[in-house]
Amino acid sequence: MTRLGGTELVDWNLAVSTAARITRPGPEVSRDQARAVVAELRRHAAASQEHVREFTGMRSAGPQAPVLVVDRPGWVKANVAGFRELLRPMMRKARERRAAVPGGTALAMVGSKVTGVEVGMLMSFLSSRVLGQYETFAPATPALPGAVDGGGRLLLVAPNIVHVERELDVEPHDFRLWVCLHEETHRTQFAAVPWLRDHLEGEIQAFLAEADVDPATLMERFRQAVQSLSGREERDERGTPDGEERQPPPAPAAGRTSLVDLVQTPRQREILERLTAVMSLLEGHADFVMDGVGPQVVPTVSEIREKFTRRRQTGAGRLDRALRRVLGMDAKLRQYQEGEHFVRAVVEEAGMAGFNKVWTSPNTLPTREEIAKPAAWVARVRPTSG
Fold it and tell me: Where is the composition biased (Basic and acidic residues) (predicted)?
């Protein structure tokens, strides 16, 4: 846990236990079916590794990060560990500021428990929606093995994959391989580009270091945001209880539409622009590879792609939309679309070898403007046609 004058600012253990307590287990499967799904996902992940390497031409210098097939609580544990590691410098700043405030320790004692519960609620919500993820930052532990450099692991969330394949009514074996192709591309990105993890971490730490708001205040705003989601928005999902008059939601503060907006200084906006461009590249590249390899190895890829895209665009409920708005995740779909358009356009003009020059160094990563205008990146980097 991160401590503040002897008291945690965020009770991470409470966040994990809260999420475990309220998270639904997922679709019903027998013990044998569960074992079969886990085994198949591991086989598909191993097969996807060679498919992705052959299609992209990207090779890792050392062993790949491990593949962990997890349930929803397992996903929560991995991500809480990652958040705790990333936020450690920010928590240290909070400790220094609160140490000089009379009564600061007592306030932190209460706040850590409240924040822990709220974070657990949020992680529970997200844990039912993620199919897979390359978890980058949590240090390796016996319970959470990582890459040989100390971090990084590919997570495949088995119950969510089964849930979506049933919801879409697609061929399960094809869908599982299709998902693995996307996630394996992320694992390959970090394995083949050794500087990428440190670059991303450096950008995130620079973003947090530039925060001009007291970290405790940010935590309070975070709690308020999650309370809004778990209260008003969830009530709207169920409908107003009998006898209770429906009240209009409070108007948002001017210019404040997400948590990201609450912490942006001019310097942070610059960093966020770069991070958005990198994430668009990584997500778009994974979608491009998935669609490029898919027709060769996934017989029903066209049906899966059509149904999954429609789900992305129209499947979000009111609570999903509220969460995306509050956390600044509403641009996620655009990142997939714009990033894939960038990758496709560069590969068409310069070939795969030319596109792969994007991985040379942080200086060859596309800017936010170049993501929207691939020709500008080609003109700047001038990759050799391949």
Answer: 231-247
* SS3 category, 80: helix
In-domain check, residue 237: no
Residue 223 is assigned to a structural domain of this protein: no
Nearest by Cα to 161 from 146, 150, 176: 176
Residue 289 forms part of a structural domain: yes
Asked whether residue 220 is assigned to any structural domain, the reply reads: no
Domain containing residue 80: CATH number = 1.20.150.30
Q: What is residue 205's predicted lDDT score, i.e. its pLDDT? A: 87
User: Is 374 found in the same domain as 320?
Assistant: yes
Residue type, 72: R
354, 366: one domain: yes
Q: Which long-range contacts (CB under 8 A, 24 or more apart) does 84-90 make?
A: 84/1, 84/2, 84/10, 84/12, 84/138, 85/137, 85/138, 85/139, 86/137, 86/201, 86/204, 86/205, 86/208, 87/2, 87/10, 87/208, 88/2, 89/205, 89/208, 89/209, 90/208, 90/211, 90/215
**pTM for this prediction:** 0.80
**pLDDT tens-place string over residues 72-120:** 999 999 999 888 888 777 777 766 666 655 545 544 555 678 788 888 9
Closest C-alpha to 328, from 249, 268, 248, 369: 268
Structural domain including 178 reads 9-192
Check whether residue 108 and residue 184 sit in a common domain.
yes
Q: What is the residue whose two structure tokens read 């789900």?
A: 311
Q: Look at the chain and report how many structural domains it folds into.
A: 2
d(C-alpha 384, C-alpha 381), whole Å: 9
Identify the CA nearest to 125 among candidates 238, 226, 222. 226
Would you say 374 and 341 are in contact if contact means Cβ atoms under 8 Å apart?
Answer: yes
Residues 171 and 308 in one domain: no
Average per-residue pLDDT for the chain: 79
